[in-house]
Design goal:
The protein has 147 residues and is α/β, with parallel strands linked by helices. 18% of the residues lie in helices and 18% in strands. Strand 3 and strand 4 form a beta hairpin. The longest helix is centred in the middle third of the chain and has 17 residues.
Length: 147
């Protein structure tokens, strides 16, 4: 088993008024040259957690961090006009919380962060400010949720 020290939360960057199935996710990642979905877990709007990649395999979700991380993605992340927005349903929030707690139990000491939190700290102030983010993903603050 590979060592895990990071759990990265993502959004699928799809509009809240559209569905994006795990099959759609897999096809989109294959079109980008991946060998299937790059995330280990995908959380649908109804809260269903789908295992999309074996945890034993490195992900393809956060360049430079895939070797020792697990990728978790929720369906959504954009409003109907295509702007970043926390579109998680109540069921997604419940499932995400349960999954993150389970993963932290299974991988003690692992840090949970959002994809945007892996952006470089360009001004060296010890935090990733909004203007430094390479992406808005997962379209909400993981830290404000207590991780």
């Amino acid at each position: 088993m590979r060592a895990i020290n990071l759990i990265v939360v993502h959004c699928s960057a799809t509009r809240e008024d559209r569905d994006f199935t795990e099959q759609d996710l897999d096809a989109a990642h294959r079109a980008r040259g991946f060998q299937g979905a790059g995330y280990h877990f995908y959380i649908r709007k109804d809260g269903r957690i789908v295992n999309t990649r074996a945890v034993e395999l490195p992900g393809a979700h956060a360049r430079g961090h895939n070797t020792a991380s697990i990728g978790v993605c929720y369906e959504g992340g954009l409003d109907a006009q295509g702007r970043a927005k926390d579109t998680r349903t109540a069921a997604q929030k419940e499932s995400l919380t349960a999954l993150l707690h389970e993963l932290q139990r299974d991988y003690p000491g692992s840090v949970v962060c959002g994809h945007r939190d892996l952006s470089p700290d360009l001004n060296g102030n010890g935090r990733i400010d909004p203007h430094e983010r390479l992406k808005e993903c997962p379209s909400y603050s993981i830290k404000e949720e207590g991780y």
